[in-house]
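Hi R.,

As promised on Friday, here is the backbone we talked about, encoded as structure tokens. Could you run it through your design pipeline when you get a chance and send me back a sequence?
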């Protein structure tokens, strides 16, 4: 009864007629897909019902959709159920369903260790799906080349596959292409082009793209800083649960970028993001407790937060810890620990920590 009077008899007649023009089960799958849209009222129960009809008639995409539903509802601790789903997806992959080939690869990546036989199998299915132009497969090939999953790193190949997927409207690939253009990896650095890519994938509601777009507006990368727009974008992503956007929004309140300084609100955002395992947020919150910004000075809490930040591979947290042990700020001076944390911060990308570590070593 969408926009017209409900008529079950006419519906059955139309569906019977429509099925003559589609593969078995395909018409039911298309009808089920309608109910997952705003136009169809996002009526999940009907979408699942008609997906069952599709699967019963042998339509492979219908079967895969039911498997995805099973996976989303399965107990994470039930390894037997996970293995059953993996095997059934593998069967669909072997029948030539490209989307199943991609999902099967992703399952193998998540469940097994890098370098395992399963990862070699995943590589085969990714390459097969990529040859058919599947954007997610191209994205995964890009990731594999960028991080050297199947051998040496190759940024040129990574860019090529990301670009293919990005041009096919894959948001995460658009994010990657924006990043490559923004730092000048493989291609000439072009901040304006990076922002265009971030703007494009932000329209897909990719929260990381929205945050990157906000950062560029806050920093005035191409034009004058637009703090109001940056704050709006950070808040939009943060309200949707994007952890690092909460940190970025907190930074705006911490330093008063386009707004009044508000330490309590900044610390609240940092605490939320730190709880969500953002190492940078833990570092900022640690500094607040160390310096008394919006909270009472508590060097013990600062030490704990710097430790958590460092454990989350944030060099600022390791550097903060190193300095505390170097000068005895709330802890006993411990040159050995200071040296260790300076070295860790150096490994994570802090140049000043490299100099400090070398100084202590000498």
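Update: got your reply. Pasting your designed sequence below so it's all in one thread:
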């Amino acid at each position: 009864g969408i926009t017209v009077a409900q008529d079950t008899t006419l519906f059955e007649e139309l569906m019977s007629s429509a099925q003559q023009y589609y593969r078995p089960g395909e018409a039911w799958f298309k009808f089920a897909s309608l109910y997952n849209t705003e136009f169809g009222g996002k009526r999940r129960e009907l979408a699942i019902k008609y997906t069952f009809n599709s699967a019963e008639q042998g339509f492979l995409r219908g079967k895969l959709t039911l498997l995805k539903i099973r996976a989303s509802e399965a107990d994470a601790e039930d390894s037997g159920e996970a293995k059953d789903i993996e095997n059934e997806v593998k069967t669909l992959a072997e029948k030539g369903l490209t989307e199943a080939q991609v999902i099967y690869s992703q399952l193998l990546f998540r469940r097994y260790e890098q370098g395992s036989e399963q990862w070699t199998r995943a590589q085969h299915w990714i390459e097969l799906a990529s040859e058919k132009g599947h954007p997610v497969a191209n994205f995964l090939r890009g990731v594999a080349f960028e991080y050297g999953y199947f051998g040496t790193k190759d940024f040129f190949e990574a860019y090529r596959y990301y670009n293919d997927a990005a041009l096919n409207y894959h948001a995460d690939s658009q994010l990657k292409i924006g990043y490559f253009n923004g730092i000048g990896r493989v291609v000439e650095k072009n901040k304006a082009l990076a922002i265009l890519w971030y703007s494009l994938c932000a329209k897909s509601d990719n929260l990381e793209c929205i945050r990157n777009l906000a950062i560029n507006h806050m920093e005035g990368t191409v034009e004058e800083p637009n703090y109001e727009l940056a704050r709006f974008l950070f808040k939009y992503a943060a309200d949707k649960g994007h952890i690092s956007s909460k940190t970025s929004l907190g930074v705006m309140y911490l330093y008063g970028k386009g707004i009044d300084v508000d330490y309590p609100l900044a610390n609240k955002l940092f605490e939320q993001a730190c709880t969500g395992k953002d190492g940078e947020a833990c570092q900022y919150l640690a500094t607040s407790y160390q310096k008394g910004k919006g909270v009472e000075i508590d060097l013990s809490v600062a030490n704990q937060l710097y430790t958590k930040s460092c454990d989350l591979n944030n060099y600022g947290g390791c550097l903060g810890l190193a300095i505390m042990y170097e000068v005895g700020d709330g802890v006993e001076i411990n040159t050995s620990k200071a040296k260790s944390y300076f070295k860790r911060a150096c490994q994570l990308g802090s140049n000043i920590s490299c100099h400090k570590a070398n100084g202590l070593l000498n």
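One thing I noticed while checking it: Residues 79-94 form the longest helix (16 residues).

Thanks again,
M.
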